[in-house]
Design goal:
By secondary structure, this protein is mainly β. The chain has one domain: Porin (Beta Barrel). It is 12% helix and 51% strand. The chain has 4 helices and 20 strands. The strands form 2 sheets. The protein has an 18-stranded antiparallel beta barrel. Strands 12-13 form a two-stranded antiparallel sheet.
Amino acid sequence: MTMFRQSATALTVSLALLATGPAWATDLEFDLTGRVSLYGKRASLAATDLVPDPDASGYQDALAGMSGVMGAKLSYGRLSLAAQFRAEARDGQVETFTDEAFAELLLGESLFVFGGRRILSYGQAYGLNPADVLHDPLSENRIFPSGQARSDVEGTEMIGADLLFDNGSSLSLIYAPDSEDPRLGIEEDFAMLRFSGLMAGGAGDYSVALIDGNRPGAALSFSWGIGDASVIYMDATFRKGRDKQAISGTSPLGHLLLDTRDTDKVHPFVTLGFGYTFENGVSLNAEYTRDAGGYSDSEWDRIVSALDTITPTQSAVHGQSLNQLNGLLNHYTLRQNYGFLRVSHDSLFGKPVSGELTVLHGLDDGSGSLGLRLEMPLGEQATLGLSATHKYGGENSEFTLRPEGDALAIYTTMKF
């Protein structure tokens, strides 16, 4: 058991003892929720230079699975205990996860302290969200809608506190020791101090955060309503160091030659967005993202040149370099400039069918991903959905590096 788990256990026990004190109310409340989802997916696969053998690399042209989630919350006086448990079944294999398990205690009238594993999300961007610093988009099952996909992930083990003010603002502190950075492949002691507030009598809101860890820096988010139908918003981080490893080329034998990882320069990652809701109920969101930590044109040219050198693989060294390059490129996005468009409607053609069309377009190389989603209710507790995606772009462009080009999925979700 790690030191953090020991500390979190001690904190949970202490909170429980404090909450049972005679001076506090002892009303017991228990809430249990559940959700089961079934899905099937069919995808077109084509070998690429980066993934010459999709089957051996674990890609499937057809799959079916089931996801079950159960949430529980127990409130006793000023103490709350919450948990989310998830089971995933696919290809005859069943995995179980404890997504959340934490205790939260109210001290005084406005201070909450907590400890355990939590799912915390930040920011509001629909496409690329720099402010959601605790989340790895690659961990999501994107067959499902964004809200469900974002919540069905393993949280972060942490301790923290939230202080609420009478004017609607709040101050939060979290500390997550031994937190794993999936892109850098290292653990860090992550900490964040975040202040959120309202502007112009509630017409806008903002948050400012200071981040500590392997990549220290700051985060900033805001949104501002314009009239009754429009909103502008921004999510941004300014962090020291880079989460991507650049290469300088290949050796005569085909070894990858890596540049020194940047650990000192501040790399802005900013999304600017605009939202508008038309009178007919159609909602539109348009966003532009600049990720200074992504690969530049010259760096991408070196990646493509390396692929040309080591593929098709003609030696063990080539195979090792290809596997290494696969790991280096294991990011949700890779380049620097993106446009995102989302068009949605909750009642298509006057029917109880919701629809959403999204496009994430890479402005550096013209590749991108197009998505379509349709959902309709099945009674009061169930939903039937259809999801389709299409990747486009030239050879060895960002969104065509990997085998899956087109995919169609159908799913149903039942709540209880």
